[in-house]
């Protein structure tokens, strides 16, 4: 089970991972920390044979509980945390300084704890609109204004945006694990940009301004703030049916380490199933990653309340196993603390628990207890 990762040898250089044609696959950050490079290499290798299971906010809270040490609904069901833990930078802006400090401390703890256990952290950014804060991260036809063009260089909110990124950068520098190294993170900003529900969505900004925002964000974090423990992930929703559509707002290979997609639509939302369409979209993502030397992932999916008791093996796993996909992880959304229906992973007593246990036991899926050391590579 560990063979694909243990094959990795030699020093931790960003030139170790290679495309399917044998060309070096450079990371976005040539000065990425050795642990970040090792994570990329291991994820690339293991995606040939396995997929990591992830859950958003898994260890922060769950169905009916909050803030308990070393707990997750997934662990309560199968005895292991998810291999990938999703967190969010939403609390690092648009709040009082005191609230931001508290949110930063909670994030630090989650990220460091996950790293110390050997798990993987992926970061979403539900970024509250810095110009029209009352709308949060959503687009509101009555209140919202076009914002992206005002955040990029030359925009009147550009300096304010840099200040927000400085808070992100400060967190990135303050996540030191018990081994004394910084925890790597897969940073996934501006997700689902092809829809119109977020203020950075395609109807609300030009292609050129979106690409400018992406490239400035990466360059400012990397080159000005010296953040070297990020892998950068690009993930639209399902508004594509071809590679050309998928790449419509792609900022370029020099700016992306991982390509992914979010897809609830084809996997049971509102009773709609089209697994063939979902698999075809995943294949577009996976095939591009293979050629470009990128990681590929199913960055968000799930079925709210999981009314289909065999969804895990009959829907999700069945799709993941099609068409020689090479995806390093799949992540389902969060389990709300109070809502009786807003959850995406099972908890003790849920009807889908037996099927989820079969999903866990399948050799293709990896959870946290399956993981080798993802953050180091051994000398040959």
From TrEMBL:
PROSITE patterns named in the record: GH26 (PS51764)
Any coiled-coil regions, as ranges: none
Binding residue positions for substrate: 126, 197, 264
Cellular component GO terms, alphabetical: extracellular region
Keywords: Carbohydrate metabolism, Glycosidase, Hydrolase, Secreted
Enzyme class: hydrolase
Any single GO BP term: substituted mannan metabolic process
Active site positions, chain numbering: 192, 300
Primary localization class, coarse: secreted
Record bears the keyword Nucleotidyltransferase: no
Domain GH26: 34-369
Listed Pfam families: Glyco_hydro_26 (PF02156)
InterPro entries assigned to the protein according to its UniProt record, in alphabetical order: GH, GH26_dom, Glyco_hydro_26, MANB/E
SUPFAM superfamilies: (Trans)glycosidases
Annotated catalysed reactions: Random hydrolysis of (1->4)-beta-D-mannosidic linkages in mannans, galactomannans and glucomannans
Residues the UniProt record annotates as site (Plays an important role in maintaining the position of the catalytic nucleophile): 191
MF GO annotations: mannan endo-1,4-beta-mannosidase activity
Record EC number: 3.2.1.78
Subcellular localization: Secreted
UniProt similarity note: Belongs to the glycosyl hydrolase 26 family.
Official protein name in the record: Mannan endo-1,4-beta-mannosidase
Organism for this UniProt entry: Catalinimonas alkaloidigena
Lineage, broadest ranks: Bacteria, Pseudomonadati, Bacteroidota, Cytophagia, Cytophagales
